Structure formats: C-alpha cells, structure tokens
Amino acid sequence: MNLTTQTDYALRTLMFLATRSERCNVADIANLFGISVNHVAKVVNLLAREGYVKSVRGVGGGIELGMLPEEISIGTVIATIESDTHLLPCVGSDDSCVIHSFCKLKGVLSEAERIQREYLDSVTLADVVPTKRQINRVQ
C-alpha cells in the first residue's frame, strides 16, 4: 500500500490536533509541517465531513478534534481517504489478469491486505500521537 499525500496530511493533522487542548487554525498546522495552507484546508474539510475534526467559525473559532483520540482508528482514517488500498489491481477485481482463475498470488496478497487492515484498525490516534512537548520542539 502506498498512501497518498492527502492521507499523510490527514494523519499529521489529527496527530497535531491531539496534542492541543485549545482550538488552532489551519495555518498552525501548515506552518509546523511546512506544507501548503490550501492542502491542509482541503484535508481539514474532509476530516470535518467525516466527524474526525470539528470546525468552529467566528471569533474564538478554529479547529479541534471531533472525537477522542482513542476513538479514531488509523485504519479507518486511511480507508476513508484512500480510494484504493490494494497491493495490485487483481486483489480488488476478479477480472484484471489472464491468469486470475488459477493465480495463487492473489490469495497471498489478499491475506496480506487483511492482516495489514486488521493491524491498522487496531491502532488508534492515541497510540501514535506525540506529546505536546515533542511537537513544540519542532516549532
């Protein structure tokens, strides 16, 4: 599985927000990681639609986690953002190769994906979040 930049930014955003007790803004995240404010804003919109992030407008507004870190599965976040997590196209299809009817590799790769999904689903944001002290040293 090769994760997209969007998934990378989403996971980083969630990790950052999990270190904060107060609301922050998109620019805070973009500045810390040295990435585009526009990219972070797009990711935050997606995360907000899915309930991972809560966005509050107006004075005193900003963004914050919409769920507890213990409730956010890394595997679920990845599955939400990634359109295709298959190792090869044949794993997600019955008809992508001339040898699909007798290919044993497809079964091996399918099992590897299952194990990977199971593991990523068992890891929560709380398991991977840095301490506030660690993230502040980066700034």
TrEMBL record:
Pfam families documented for this protein: Rrf2
Swiss-Prot/TrEMBL keywords: DNA-binding
InterPro entries named among the record's database cross-references: TR_Rrf2-type_CS, Tscrpt_reg_Rrf2, WH-like_DNA-bd_sf, WH_DNA-bd_sf
Entry keyword DNA-binding: yes
Name of the protein: Rrf2 family transcriptional regulator
Organism of provenance: Roseiconus lacunae
